[in-house]
Design a protein that fits this description.
Arc Repressor Mutant, subunit A; elongated; DNA Methylphosphotriester Repair Domain; 190 residues; 56% helix; alpha+beta
């Protein structure tokens, strides 16, 4: 083991994840360098190039950092939240409902999601709803703005319009008009 690897283990350095794994001989467990478990004594650490190599040496994967999976547990949680939101964005999703579905505390989910993505789960949900609304405004000219607002998960057209304007810089009506005008100009040019 070199000095950089030991520093990575002591500092729980994520940048070394995937480059090596370490096993602790006293526990028989192997981890990623970023694992937040207690720092082992240097003399009890063995370095492995892969999870397969660690397993074949008789070590079992850590339940905290799950080194035998492609994603870190926090990344899996983010993917889980995104999958739920992408699939069920029209429903009245709450932080508590997301946390319960992923079997974790709402506070932890919120904190980790924001740390890894830069936005809160609620912000991600609203952005997903706005993207769906923009698509509907462009492609469904016969639906009213209220129908679209309700169809993408907003409780009222006024709230939808306020959020839409804040995120896009224009009202839903103006947004739709831009695409109708552009579509008409393209048809005329043909």
């Amino acid at each position: 083991m070199d000095e950089a690897q030991w520093k990575a283990i002591v500092n729980c350095d994520e940048t070394f994840d995937g480059r090596f794994f370490y096993g602790v001989t006293t526990t028989g467990i192997f981890c990623r360098p970023s694992c937040r478990s207690r720092t082992p004594l240097l003399e009890h650490v063995r370095i492995f190039k892969s999870a397969v190599e660690a397993r074949s040496a008789g070590f079992r994967p850590c339940k905290r950092c799950r080194p035998d999976t492609p994603l870190r547990p926090e990344e899996e949680m983010v993917q889980g939240v995104k999958a739920i939101v992408n699939r069920r964005f029209v429903e009245p999703l709450t932080l508590e409902a997301l946390a319960q579905e992923l079997s974790m505390s709402p506070y932890h989910l919120h904190r980790m999601f924001k740390r890894l993505t830069g936005v809160t789960p609620a912000d991600y949900l609203v952005a997903k709803r706005i993207e769906a609304a923009k698509e509907a405004l462009r492609t469904e000219p016969l639906r009213t703005i209220t129908e679209i607002a309700l169809a993408v998960g907003f409780r009222s057209a006024s709230h939808f319009s306020t959020v839409f304007r804040k995120m896009t810089g224009c009202s839903p009506k103006d947004y739709r008009a831009q695409y109708i005008t552009a579509g008409t100009a393209q048809e005329a040019a043909r």
